[in-house]
Specification:
The protein is an alpha+beta fold. The chain is 32% helix and 39% strand. The longest helix is centred in the N-terminal third of the chain and has 13 residues, at 13-25.
Length: 105
Amino acid sequence: MAFLVFYVTHPDEETARSIAAHLLQKRLIACSNILPVTSAFWWQGVISSEGEWISILKTRLDLEERVETEILKIHPYQTPCILRFEVRANAEYEAWITAETVAAS
């Protein structure tokens, strides 16, 4: 059994926590990890470097579209980074993710 890990960047810790809390309350993710990072990137023709926050969000495969839709509704970036990876883990952890999230309708 596989599940999804979303990797999302945010402008600050408050935004990362707010989006994670929103997804947790809707039971669209089982958990999140929130970390500070320095990002370097091209934006509007210039190389920029600034602090950001990353959230790593774990969910079931069938919730992929709903998770992305909810992130896009409230994310402040014009072009947010929303990556997802299909992953596997130990059976107990995968069962926990499934048990803690709602099935897609």
